[in-house]
Write a structure and sequence with these properties.
The chain is α/β, with parallel strands linked by helices. It has 2 domains: about 190 residues, P-loop containing nucleotide triphosphate hydrolases (Rossmann fold, 3-Layer(aba) Sandwich); about 210 residues, Class I glutamine amidotransferase (GATase) domain (Rossmann fold, 3-Layer(aba) Sandwich). It is about 30% helix and about 30% strand. Strands 13, 15, 16, 18, 19, 20, 21, 22, 23, 24 and 25 form an 11-stranded mixed β-sheet that branches. A hairpin with a 6-residue loop joins strand 21 and strand 22.
Length: about 500
């Protein structure tokens, strides 16, 4: 039977995911076979396991921190908002339908509880340590009856709970006291410590507040974790975009259209870490400006996001930029938008049966009921995008889409997918215009491949009269260093002896 620890928060966005990631790496470094778990996740940033199952991105980061290949038992329930207060429910990695918030919370969530229990049992049987993450707050009294992610899970796992408060946003002390007051006595007993997160300044000045918390609640303050800048850890919540990539201008500027249903924006992390690249997300009302490249990202609702671009005139702006020689890249939903037409005859994405695309690629897309989810291994030979002529083998990425895109005119293809999950395949993906200025692909993570990413960036540099650069940034090595940095900081600021003592009491 595994030892457990659970991180819950006084609210959303207090740092539960990040602290759980840190604990996964801390325990991994201590030699424990450690696994993350989050019963239910709500996120548009998702990932595909080797088995072809879709899970939340945060659990993938936590798995990587624990030195593991992600598996579906780490996140048995994933909710992907579709709009109109509804979400696609992904159960054990596969979509089972679209439910309104009311339908899900009153009718379906407890149905999913069986899979939560099975997943937790599987992890309990196969690992030494389980690091569990809650969601939102355990004190949401309107949701508690059908809760399958906070205190119900803590009780199932018999896990000691660390309650996290974000002091950076203010009201941390009140949120701790208030949360504990709203818990039932048996739930309150499971809370074994308080963590104050994102602290800035002299911790000695905070000591009277820490003493007050301990005296008022009877709960130990287990640590005060500082605000950590430039974490460089994958995030899954759209709230992360508010501060993402806001930095100084660099030699190459890339504009990413921040559509309302944007998904998998981690596709652009590797770009933003390059020393010569500035990535800017273009929000509603902001001009695209004159970037060196425009990217259309993935989308949970392609037709809705395409309508958004058209309603706000961004479609014309993108056309004008493309005509002026600015390259355009579309990934997944962005790839679909770049085509001539999008068709949704079965109403999979809503009530728009068809919509004219941006017309920058000679393709047409039809939405399908079946969701394709695979990790992929692919090759590329003489890629014509931007005239890079890049060739490479054994490149990696993943697919998550519900559409079929076919050519309707002349153009070149991009990538040769040779493996989907564990199956050998022979699939051609992607389209490039004959002038090499516009490219679309279904493959997420193409820019995580160091040599391919650098070849595209060097083509942009050459276009501006800049000298090409060697590969100076290696994405996967960078992620490993980020996990170690995070773990070191968090371990230094938590009372690990106290946490260890909780496990010894089992």
């Amino acid at each position: 039977m595994a030892k457990k620890i659970m991180f819950q928060g006084t609210s959303s966005n207090v740092g539960k995911s990040i602290l759980a990631t840190a604990m996964c790496r801390i325990l991994h470094n201590k030699g424990y076979k450690t696994v993350p778990f989050k019963a239910q996740n709500m996120a548009l940033n998702s990932y595909v396991t080797k088995a072809g199952d879709e899970i939340g991105r945060a659990q993938v980061a936590q798995a990587e921190a624990a030195g593991l290949e992600p598996i579906v038992q780490m996140n048995p329930v994933l909710l992907k908002p579709t709009g109109n207060q509804s979400s696609q429910v992904v159960l054990m990695g596969k979509p089972v339908g679209v439910y309104s918030a009311r339908e899900y919370h009153t009718k379906y969530s407890l149905t999913a509880l069986d899979k939560v229990k099975e997943s937790l049992q599987y992890l309990d049987d196969n690992f030494d340590m389980i690091v569990i993450e809650g969601a939102g707050s355990p004190a949401e009294v309107n949701l508690k009856a059908n809760d399958i992610v906070n205190m119900r899970v803590a009780k199932l796992a018999k896990a000691p709970v660390m309650l996290i408060a974000d002091i950076d946003r203010g009201g941390a002390i009140a949120s701790v006291v208030g949360t504990l007051e709203l818990l039932e006595p048996d739930e309150r007993d499971l809370v074994k410590g308080i963590i104050i997160n994102k602290f800035r300044g002299d911790v000695t000045l905070l000591q009277p507040a820490l003493d007050f918390i301990e005296e008022k609640t009877g709960k130990k303050v287990v640590g005060v974790v500082p605000a950590i800048e430039n974490l460089d850890i994958d995030e899954e919540d759209s709230v992360a975009l508010e501060s993402k990539y806001r930095g100084v201008s660099k030699e190459i500027t890339i504009a990413v259209m921040q559509t309302p249903k944007i998904s998998n924006f981690t596709d652009f992390d590797a770009l933003a870490y390059e020393p010569d690249v500035s990535v800017r997300f273009v929000k509603q009302g902001e001009p695209i400006g004159h970037p060196d490249m425009v990217i259309l990202p993935g989308s949970k609702n392609t037709l809705a996001d395409l309508s958004y671009l058209q309603e706000h005139g961004y479609d014309k702006d993108i056309h004008d930029l493309a005509n002026a020689g600015v390259p355009v890249l579309g990934i997944c939903g962005g790839n679909q938008m770049l085509g001539e037409m999008l068709y949704d005859p079965e109403g999979i994405e809503g009530d728009i049966p068809e919509l004219k695309g941006l017309g920058l690629l000679p393709t047409a897309t039809t939405m399908k009921t079946e969701k394709l989810t695979h990790q992929v291994c692919f090759d590329v030979k003489d890629l014509s995008f931007l005239g890079t002529n890049y060739s490479g083998e054994n490149l990696v990425g993943y697919e998550i889409h519900m559409g079929d895109t076919q050519p309707v005119g002349p153009g070149e293809r991009c990538f040769h997918i040779q493996k989907r999950s564990d199956a050998k395949v022979d699939v051609i993906d992607g389209f490039v215009t004959s002038n090499g200025q516009v490219m679309g692909t279904y493959i997420h993570g193409i820019l995580d491949n160091d040599a391919l990413r650098r070849s595209i960036l060097n083509a942009l540099r050459t276009k501006k009269g800049l000298e090409p650069l060697d590969i100076v940034f290696r994405y996967f090595e960078h992620k490993e260093a980020a996990y170690n940095r995070l773990a070191k900081i968090v371990e230094e600021h938590l009372d690990m002896e106290y946490i260890q003592s909780l496990w010894e009491q089992d």
